[in-house]
Amino acid sequence: MSEVIFTNEMDEEMTLNMGPHHPSTHGVLRFIVSSDGEIIRKAVPDVGYLHRSIEKIGERNTYPGYMPYTDRVDYVAAMFANECWASACEKLMGITVPKRAQYLRVISCELNRISSHMVALGAMAMDIGATTPFPWTLRERERVNDLVEELCGARLTYNYHRIGGVSFDVPKGWIDKANHFLDLFDPAMEEFDRLITLNDIFIKRLANVAVITAEEAVDWGLVGPNLRASGVDWDLRKADNYSVYSELDFDVPVGKGQHGTVGDCWDRFDVRVKECRESSKILRQALKKIDEHPEDDILGKLPKKLKPEGEAYARVESARGDMGCYVIGAGKEEPYRCRFRTGSFTAMGIIEAKSPGLFLADLVALIASLDVVAPEIDR
Amino acid sequence: MTPEDIHEKLKTELGEEAVFDFHPVSTKDRDAWLQVAPFEIERVCEYLKTTKGLSFDYLECITGVDYPDLKKIVVVYHLYSLTQKHRIVLKVFLDREDPTMPSIVNVWSAANWQERECFDLLGVLFEGHPDLRRLLLPDDWEGHPLRKDYEEKEEYHGIPTVRPNPIDLFKIQIPAKEAKAS
Question: Domain A54-304 carries which CATH code?
């Protein structure tokens, strides 16, 4: 918890240590806050507590053998790191993925996006004092976890995608179960809106707090929901049209400043709520269209030994925005270098610049609204 | 704009001593890249960001790669334009013994933390960076782990960096003396 380290008697400024085990820091990360009473002069983030040198581990593993490690890049949304690594390797080796596998990837990723946003939304509400929504969102997340467990056998670190496809096809009756979940999920989101998103107290707490303008968001390299909440209409799924997203119809929710200024904390919350609805829309279409493609055609043709030479950079739109993977091969079984570019990392960078003038309690709202996940920052 | 057009434009506007060695998309280089002279990087980036039609507003990624065989450290910039939706990759080849180059924090603020990470893990010194401290590793860490010749120390402040193989731990061995006594 927070503790006062040092008070300068001549000045009103004091230095507060927030973290590394503060409940609102979502993992282990620390802030050194200089504040004048309640008002922050500067908050300097101190990260690295969860650094596991994932990039170095990659240099010591084979291309397929590295897949389980990528789960740990972002354990709340592991499917995206899987997809990112798989697509980087596919781009490097020029492998095409069968259509059915691409649909399975979209389905698994969108399910994961829902479950990740459920944690983000519930935890954000809890951080600023509303405890009820958290169990509500976790109830939905459990349903998703049950579905994904049936699909790939794991509930958190999925290791589902493979270079060239995915590991399992859908089990019997799974598509009906997924459709049933969506039938329950859509009304649950309506309920969630009435409970918290459009709650007067909640709006008053978050509107106009920690506004990030569109220019700042682009300059600091914010991605995903954080960027869109600032009013920039950019989604990699639309911009790059990777995988089969071009065959699916969905909208990109953008922050509009309905209750305050564009790019405030409420906008960031609202964009995630709307994104869940869009994911549900995508899932319904994908679950219908997947049957157009032959069953069990889920793994593309791979060379016997994966010893590529060259380099590739692949991107996917993860739950926390643009996730990139840069892989260099040097004709060996292990990659020469692999690098993950993650959304939380750049989102953390902006906190130091945005913090001056914020209330101490609003810093918690800012961290929560950026939806940073500590392992994704540190890797 | 295609990478070829971008390269042509850079070459005519900034000169061949600033940008050179263009590699188009091939089976080896899946993204087109070009080399930038180390001390021209800020000028090139500024030009890429501010010129109409190029408007590279989004710095995606800064990566460092160590090549001991070439005696080089390569810093790779992945740039993207949110409005024009095109990409380019810049590479800067630095001397491995003295990897120093200008910072581009003044062009994109996003470079701030990414350059700190690159310094932390590869030891590239970015001149003009406002706060070049270690980011992920402790401040008193020795060496830069993503260099290929990095060797892990046996311990860090009394904390061992290696542990016995967990599989060996399950094979319980009774010490010879005790075995005789029983």
Answer: 1.10.645.10
